[in-house]
Design a protein that fits this description.
- The chain has a domain at 2-38 and 63-75 and 211-281 and 441-493: FAD/NAD(P)-binding domain (3-Layer(bba) Sandwich), CATH 3.50.50.60.
- The protein has 17 helices and 18 strands.
- It has helices at residues 11-22, 65-71, 104-120, 131-138, 141-149, 152-159, 163-170, 187-196, 211-224, 265-272, 306-309, 320-331, 346-349, 356-361, 382-398, 424-431, 482-493, and strands spanning 2-7, 27-31, 42-43, 53-54, 77-79, 82-87, 93-97, 205-207, 228-231, 235-240, 245-249, 252-261, 287-293, 313-316, 341-344, 364-370, 419-422, 466-468.
- The strands form four sheets. Strands 1, 2, 9, 10, 11, 12 and 18 form a seven-stranded mixed beta sheet that branches. Strands 7-6-14-15-16-13-17 form a seven-stranded mixed beta sheet.
- Strand 1, helix 1 (11-22) and strand 2 form a beta-alpha-beta unit.
Length: 495
């Protein structure tokens, strides 16, 4: 009988394991794969090529600095010098350096989101506030209206007259989220909010050594504190009377006073024999493409060094109009003809993910996210749809370059191009993400939407001694460690 059994060894589960074990609780982590890390892992995807990529998750924004200090994490996070670069149709482009908004309208928008970030982010590791309480903490009715009450597209039209600039800002609302900027559901608002509030600033940082360096250190901290691990143990069901639970897995079972589920809510419901909790069911909306290049491609704007353009987020065909057209195509069940996508080059900020020979040769990695690629596009003939999606994404990228990206790809010793892609369907199969949703489900507001939930930790479930500790918890999503930490606080604060 363990004090806590954690189902799933992703980064949130490891955070919970470390904190509980340090507090003297007996902890067991059950992981179905042959390694921990979940979506936050680094791997060498191409045989004979010494490049260790963050294969699924990519950057870090939401992990609180206070939590990193509490855990004693030493993984270095590096700030990118460039925020973004976006090519224009005329061959020029807009380069936005970190901390240097390119105009007064950008500065005004960043000030608005900054006020919200400074007020909201500290609450993510506190008991869940009521809606009115969080609104009062924000203390800015215009900002609250813009981000919490009305479709994000309204505020973006007010602040950005230029369709091109409006789209650049809007993309933070659409990563992993299938929605239009005018959707009344406000899914896009919630996604945008989590993308801009990290540590009260919204900065996205590069983990040195790749995402796997972060989770490997978390695992080491958990094991050093006394937590136990069993790999290759896929949990098949959970039974509980509210006081004690039994967790069944391939080959056995184990007792627990508490179960912390570092899996999606839909997966937990299946393990509990309960109905699916989300209607509609979760759906991912992105195509992830990893590439290794011999060299960075030449830009149509010859005055700009590609090393500068790719140092931040490189936006491709993401004007507000292009985003709306792609969304409409996907709603019709069609792969967007010219996929909006965004790219970043991890190796420019952190060359340690490449072996010495690759570094000396000038090789670079590219990570690309294609937007408005929902799971529904890939549920028929998956391979055919995946090929169309890759073709659309590469064509989109090539439309803003001075040479085809295919000509820059590094080749494996066997002569294969270093390019791999993952659809939402593949993310579900490989990582257990329902519908390939990288947040486990639609992101939720960081406040209690029901009066009874105020003051809870946002990790509670219908079963008293079963808690969510993954991205599907309220205030989950992103590589944050927050739901893992909040689940541990719930356990440690219980009498």
């Amino acid at each position: 009988m363990y004090d806590a059994v954690i189902v799933g060894g992703g980064h949130n589960g490891l955070v919970a394991a470390a904190l509980l074990a340090r507090a003297g609780r007996s902890v067991l982590v059950l992981e179905r794969r042959d390694h921990v890390g979940g979506a936050a892992v680094s791997e060498r995807p191409w045989a004979g090529v010494d490049a260790r990529l963050s294969r699924y998750a990519y950057l870090v924004s939401l992990m609180p600095e206070a939590l990193r200090r509490e855990l004693g994490l030493r993984t270095e996070l590096r700030r990118r010098s460039v925020s973004s670069y976006t090519p224009r149709p005329d061959g020029t482009g807009l380069l936005v350096r970190a901390g240097e908004p390119p105009g007064p309208h950008w500065a005004a928008w960043e000030a608005l989101t900054g006020r919200v970030a400074a007020a909201v982010f500290p609450t993510l590791t506190e008991p869940l506030p009521a809606r009115a309480e969080l609104r009062a903490r924000v203390g800015d009715e215009a900002a609250w209206e813009a981000l919490f009450e009305r479709p994000l597209g309204h505020a973006l039209r007010h602040h950005f007259e230029d369709d091109f600039e409006r789209g650049i800002v809007a993309t933070d609302a659409l990563i992993g989220t299938f929605a239009g900027l005018e959707d009344e559901s406000l899914r896009q608002n919630r996604c945008f909010l989590y993308h801009v509030i990290g540590n009260g600033t919204g900065h996205w940082d590069v983990p040195v050594g790749g995402m796997g360096a972060l989770t490997e250190e978390l695992a080491a901290l958990a094991w050093a504190a006394g937590a136990e691990l069993r790999l290759g143990c896929e949990v098949t069901s959970i039974e509980t009377d509210g006081v004690a639970a039994e967790v069944f897995y391939d080959g056995g079972s184990v007792g627990a006073r508490r179960v912390l589920a570092n899996v999606a809510p839909a997966v937990l419901a299946r393990l509990m024999g309960a109905p699916a909790p989300d209607d509609p069911a979760p759906e991912g909306a992105q195509l992830k493409v990893n590439m290794l290049l011999q060299r960075l491609p030449r830009l149509r704007d010859a005055s700009l060094d590609p090393r500068e353009a790719f140092a931040g987020t490189f936006h491709v065909n993401e004007s507000a109009t292009q985003l709306a057209m792609a969304y409409a195509s996907a709603q019709r069940g069609e792969v967007p003809e010219l996929a909006p996508c965004e790219i970043y080059c991890h190796s420019l900020t952190d060359p340690t993910i490449l072996g010495p020979e690759l570094r000396e040769s000038g090789a670079q990695t590219l990570t690309c996210f294609g937007l408005h690629m929902p799971a529904r596009l890939f549920t028929g003939d998956h391979e055919q749809a995946k090929a169309r999606a890759i073709e659309s994404t590469l064509a989109s990228l090539n439309s803003v370059l001075a040479e085809p990206i295919e000509d820059c790809l590094y080749m494996t010793p066997s002569g294969e191009p270093c390019l791999e892609a993952r659809t939402p369907v593949e993310l579900e199969a490989e990582l257990g993400l329902p519908g390939g949703n990288i947040f486990h489900r639609d992101l939720a507001w960081p406040f209690a939407e029901e009066e009874a939930a105020a003051g809870t930790w946002g990790v509670e479930t219908p079963w008293d001694n079963v808690l969510l500790c993954g991205a599907g918890a309220r205030r989950g999503g992103g590589v944050s460690g927050i739901p893992g930490r909040n689940a541990a606080m719930k356990v440690l604060s219980a009498r």
